[in-house]
């Protein structure tokens, strides 16, 4: 074997320069998102790397276009439409620059200079345990290591939730006692190491302690790589009238012997509108007037309620959320405060879920999370805001938004929804509390394995995901978003008069979201296609809605089955329909 180089000194120089920045780096974006950057250099000096967004469970995002010219370094992460540009220090230990997914944000990486202990501690290694919340089983993996100074470090993997590499904090091993926190999920573990050093007995707490024991493993488990999606060939754009025929064909496998096969009890309702033409149809066990939980698509209604109340002069976007809470709920913080707009654009800095969420009934987990619990969480969490928080999807944030708007209006959230949105648009089946007649049309939900699932009832967090609706109502809602200036309103009430302006206001792009997207009031926006979208899921249902004002089409998918191991099938159907409407290659639905 012979290796030949035409310019040996240049290659060696390049390798030396590139190798200076090879290795692992850590950084924090927006003061909250913990990132890890891995840079490799091969024998020819070619650079490559990956990026981990630890708090969001997005690991191994492939980097591209790595360039090092002098001390100037840059790279992209195509899958999230992001890029980083900056400079490296002479010793290669610090990379100072900015991350850009539409709006540049400062992001400095520091080399991970961990030096392992010469002799591992008794708790170092790989551990595997099983957590059983609400009768479910979640495999939890720990990877523990100690450094030369005797400090302990660990990461936690929730394998079945595909949340990998969650960083531990306050890791302590004293005597036989082992404790740590996981800040990104507000979790805490306390355990005891057995005398033989091969097991940990203890408990995990995210509000209510649950038993969690670990056994030592020879090596870490890894998730299988996610296969890239397969796309069908592009076809001419499909009209609303022709979409049922196309979907009968494209979902043929699922209808014959898959999730929609006779006897499964699972069905899907689909609504499509193109250039003012509406079509609604159902497949499997569903009917066009079947009622489903729409999950987090509720957030777009809550965002619209906010826009309505702004148009009516009841609140302002810049109002601190504290001022809308009942008097004396929480004291004024020093410095900046979380505003209503921060909540509506997912930039409040609040976590995804409150740390005192401890449902008595795991099958109906939100039913007992009431206002006193929400306010207790806020008193502990605080409503102060450090800097400009990055985008962080928060159910508790949107639940809080719905709650404070209800408090300001003097109404309960279901009544506020009816007054501000459902009645003006004549959405007769878009509600939180079903009548007896509606209950008869309410689809039985199913979990990811096809088993029956309990419906979810939301109290203080209703604004995040409490709404039930039909495809008929939802496609009318989407048509209103397509053409707010020509709404067919059912009354001349104040709410009806302000609704066109409020809908347009809810579309205004106000902040960055993940993956190079933007966000209005809850609605995500894809700049490349001009599409607004949101999805949702509860314990037995999943949903997807989108509209494209430029191309004048919209669609909604309502499914009485929640997200499974392969992700959300409602999302895939919704994306497929959008691609058929646009005449582009469509994601395959046979897998």
In whole angstroms, how far apart are the ends?
A: 45 Å
Which value, in Å, is the CA radius of gyration?
A: 26 Å
Stretches where pLDDT falls below 50 for ≥5 residues? 1-16
User: What count of structural domains?
Assistant: 3
Level-1 CATH class name of the largest domain: Alpha Beta
CATH topology of the largest domain: Beta-lactamase
Average of pLDDT:
90
Distinct helical segment count: 13
Which overall shape is indicated by the principal axes computed on the Cα atoms? globular
Structural class: alpha+beta
Instruction: Specify the biggest β-sheet.
Output: 10 strands, antiparallel
Strand segment tally: 33
User: What is the CATH superfamily classification of the largest domain?
Assistant: DD-peptidase/beta-lactamase superfamily
CATH architecture of the largest domain: 3-Layer(aba) Sandwich
Helix content: 10-25%
List strands and helices in order, with pairings.
Layout: H1 8-19, E1 23-29, E2 33-41, E3 47-53, E4 58-62, E5 64-69, E6 72-77, E7 82-88, E8 94-100, E9 104-111, E10 125-131, E11 138-146, E12 152-158, E13 163-167, E14 169-174, E15 177-182, E16 187-193, E17 199-205, E18 209-211, E19 214-217, E20 231-232, H2 243-250, H3 252-257, E21 267-274, E22 277-284, E23 292-293, H4 298-311, H5 340-344, H6 371-381, H7 395-409, H8 413-425, H9 436-439, E24 445-446, E25 452-453, H10 462-465, E26 468-469, H11 471-482, H12 494-507, E27 511-512, E28 518-519, E29 524-526, E30 531-537, E31 542-548, E32 553-559, H13 569-582, E33 586-587
Antiparallel strand pairs: 1-2, 1-9, 2-3, 3-4, 5-6, 6-7, 7-8, 8-9, 10-11, 10-19, 11-12, 12-13, 14-15, 15-16, 16-17, 17-18, 17-19, 20-33, 21-22, 21-32, 23-26, 24-25, 27-28, 28-29, 29-30, 30-31, 31-32
């Amino acid at each position: 074997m012979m290796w030949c180089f035409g310019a040996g000194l240049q290659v060696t120089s390049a390798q030396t320069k590139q190798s200076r920045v090879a290795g692992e780096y850590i950084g924090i974006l927006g003061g909250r998102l913990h990132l890890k950057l891995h840079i490799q250099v091969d024998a020819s000096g070619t650079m490559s790397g990956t990026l981990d967004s630890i708090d969001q469970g997005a690991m191994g995002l492939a980097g591209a276009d790595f360039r090092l010219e002098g001390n100037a370094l840059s790279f992209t992460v195509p899958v999230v439409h992001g890029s980083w540009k900056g400079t490296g220090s002479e010793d290669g230990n610090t990379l100072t620059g900015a991350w850009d997914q539409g709006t540049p944000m400062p992001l400095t990486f520091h080399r991970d200079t961990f030096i392992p202990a010469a002799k591992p501690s008794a708790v170092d290694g790989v551990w595997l345990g099983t957590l059983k919340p609400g009768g479910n089983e979640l495999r939890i993996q720990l990877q523990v290591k100690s450094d030369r100074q005797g400090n302990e470090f660990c990461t936690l993997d929730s394998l079945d939730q595909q949340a990998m590499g969650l960083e531990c904090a306050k890791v302590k091993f004293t005597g036989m006692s082992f404790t740590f926190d996981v800040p990104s999920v507000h979790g805490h573990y306390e355990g005891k190491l057995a005398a033989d050093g091969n097991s940990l007995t203890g408990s995990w707490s995210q509000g209510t302690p649950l038993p969690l024991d670990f056994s030592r493993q020879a090596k870490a488990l890894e998730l299988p790589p996610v296969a890239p999606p397969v796309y069908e060939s592009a076809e001419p754009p499909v009209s609303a009238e022709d979409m049922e025929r196309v979907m009968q064909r494209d979902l043929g496998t699922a209808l014959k012997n898959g999730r929609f096969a006779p006897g499964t009890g699972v069905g899907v309702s689909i609504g499509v509108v193109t250039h003012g033409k509406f079509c609604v149809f159902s497949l499997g066990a569903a009917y066009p007037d079947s009622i489903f939980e729409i999950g987090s698509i509720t957030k777009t209604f809550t965002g619209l309620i906010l826009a309505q109340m702004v148009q009516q002069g009841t609140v302002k976007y810049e109002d601190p959320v504290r001022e809308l809470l009942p008097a004396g709920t929480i004291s004024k913080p020093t410095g900046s405060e979380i505003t209503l707009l921060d909540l509506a654009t997912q930039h409040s800095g609040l976590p995804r879920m409150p740390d005192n969420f401890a449902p008595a009934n795991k099958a109906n987990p939100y039913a007992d999370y009431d206002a006193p619990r929400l306010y207790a969480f806020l008193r502990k969490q605080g409503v102060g805001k450090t800097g400009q928080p990055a985008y962080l999807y928060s159910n508790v944030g949107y639940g809080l938004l719905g709650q404070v708007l209800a408090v300001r209006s003097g109404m309960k959230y279901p009544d506020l929804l009816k007054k501000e949105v459902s009645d003006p648009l004549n959405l007769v089946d878009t509600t939180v509390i079903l009548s007896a007649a509606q209950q008869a049309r309410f689809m039985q939900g199913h979990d990811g394995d096809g088993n029956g699932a309990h419906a979810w009832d939301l109290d203080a967090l209703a604004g995040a995901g409490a709404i039930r609706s039909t495809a008929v109502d939802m496609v009318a809602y989407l048509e209103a978003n397509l053409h707010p200036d020509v709404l067919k309103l059912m009354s001349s009430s104040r709410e009806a008069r302000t609704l066109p302006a409020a809908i347009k206001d809810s579309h205004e792009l106000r902040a960055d979201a993940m993956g190079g997207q933007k966000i209005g009031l809850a609605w995500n926006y894809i700049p490349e296609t001009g599409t607004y979208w949101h999805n949702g899921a509860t314990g037995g249902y999943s949903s997807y809605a989108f509209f494209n004002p430029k191309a004048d089409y919209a669609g909604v998918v309502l499914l009485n089955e929640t997200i499974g191991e392969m992700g959300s099938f409602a999302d895939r159907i919704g994306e497929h329909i959008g691609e058929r409407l646009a005449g582009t290659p469509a994601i395959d639905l046979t897998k």
